[in-house]
C-alpha cells in the first residue's frame, strides 16, 4: 500500500470518527502534577454531576468523543491529587482542544475555543477574589451574624467585578449558549438582595430566570436560584408554599430538572426554621405527589412519600399531643400529660446522643429557654426523649451530664416504641414540639430560632 493511499485511509477513518462525534475534546498534557483527571458534566449544582471519562494525563494526549447529541452545559475537569476543578463549557458539535502543564492548570491552560478562553479568564478573576470569601467564612466562624442586606454589602465590590466580567463575555457569545445562560443567572443572583417586604423584587427576580430552560439544568446554578427566591418569603408555612407553587408552575413535569427541583423543595420545606413547616410539607407532598397527574417518581419512591403523607395527615390534624408513657433514667414510667400540668408549657424533644446536630442544638435550646422564661415570665418543662433504640443507658446518661440538661427536665427513652415514633413523625433528630399544660400543641417541629416568636404569639393570642 503506497503512502498516499495509507494517508487517505487514515484521514477518512479520522473523518468518520469525528463526523459521528457530537462533540470532541482533545487534551494535551505535559509534566502535570496529577497523573489522571476526570471529565464530568454538571447537573443542577456543584454536588451533582454526570461522570464522563477518566483521562490518563501521563499519556500526553487524551481524546473524548461523544457520539450522542448533548443539550450543552457546563463541564469540569477534576484533578483528584491536587483537588482542583477546571470548568469549561461544551455545546453540541463542539471541537475543543486544551493544553495542560505543570501544577497551575488554570494559569497555564491553552485552548482553541474562544468562549472557553474567556471562561478560563473569568475563573482566574474569581480565584483572585477568593480572599473575600475566606474573610467572610472567618467572620462567621468567629460568631459574627450577617443578615441578607449586610451580606450583600460585604460582597458588593466582588459582585460588581464579576457581573462586569460576565456581561463583557456575554456580548461575545450567543444568548442561546449554556455559558450565556449560566452567566445571566449568576448576574441575577449577585444583583439580588432578598427582602421579604419587596414583593416586586421577588417577582422581578423569578421573571429574570427561566428555571425550566434545559441548558440551565446542566449548570451549577439551579439550586442557588431556588434558595435565593424563597429567601424573599417570610419563614412561615403559608408564605413559603406560595413561593413553592410559583416555582412548580414554571416547570414541565417531564423535564430533567423536575425531580431535582422537587427533591430540593422537600428539603427546604422540612427546614425547622419555617413556622408550621409540617403543614407546608404536608401540602407539598399532597399536591405534587398524591394529586399530581404527572407521575415522575418510581413506584417505590411514590409509596414512601404516600406513607409519609398518611403519617403527616394524622400529625397535622392533631390538636392534642399523643400521650407518651416511657421509662426514665431510673427505669420509672413517666407520663407526658401529667408532667405537662406542672408547667405553663412543655417542650417535647426527640434526640439521639450520637447525633452531631443534637450536641449543638439541645444546649442552644436549653440556654434560649432559660433566657425566655425570665423575659416572658413563663415556666417551661422539658420532656426529653432518647430516640435511638441502640443507645446504651450509660452513654445516654453521659450525654445528659455533659451538656448539663438537668433544669426542669424529665429524660425518658423511646426504645423500640415505634407507635410513638410514628405519631410524632420522629424519624430525624433533633425534633422539638411545644405543648400547653393540657397537652395541646402550640407548635410542631419548631427550632431554636423560631421559639421566641412562637412564645410571643402564644402569649399575645386570646386564650
Describe the structure.
The structure is a single chain. This protein is an alpha+beta fold and 463 residues long. The chain is built from 19 helices and 15 strands. Strand 2 and strand 3 (45-56) form a beta hairpin. It has helices at 3-19, 105-108, 114-128, 130-141, 148-154, 156-170, 178-191, 199-207, 214-217, 222-230, 237-249, 258-269, 277-290, 299-317, 336-340, 356-376, 393-402, 418-423, 448-460; strands spanning 23-30, 36-43, 45-56, 61-66, 73-79, 84-90, 95-101, 110-111, 325-327, 333-335, 345-351, 380-386, 409-413, 431-436, 441-444. The N and C termini lie far apart (100 Å).
Estimated share of beta-strand residues: 15-25%
Number of strands: 15
Mean residue pLDDT: 92
> What share of residues is helical?
40-55%
Uncertain residue segments: 6-19
The largest pleated sheet is described as:
5 strands, mixed
Secondary structure tally, helices: 19
Radius of gyration from the alpha-carbon trace, in angstroms: 28 Å
End-to-end separation in angstroms reads 100 Å
* Shape call: elongated
Strand order across the biggest sheet? 13-12-11-14-15
Q: Which class do the helix and strand fractions yield?
A: alpha+beta
Topology:
Layout: H1 3-19, E1 23-30, E2 36-43, E3 45-56, E4 61-66, E5 73-79, E6 84-90, E7 95-101, H2 105-108, E8 110-111, H3 114-128, H4 130-141, H5 148-154, H6 156-170, H7 178-191, H8 199-207, H9 214-217, H10 222-230, H11 237-249, H12 258-269, H13 277-290, H14 299-317, E9 325-327, E10 333-335, H15 336-340, E11 345-351, H16 356-376, E12 380-386, H17 393-402, E13 409-413, H18 418-423, E14 431-436, E15 441-444, H19 448-460
Parallel strand pairs: 1-7, 11-12, 12-13
Antiparallel strand pairs: 1-4, 2-3, 2-5, 5-6, 7-8, 9-10, 11-14, 14-15
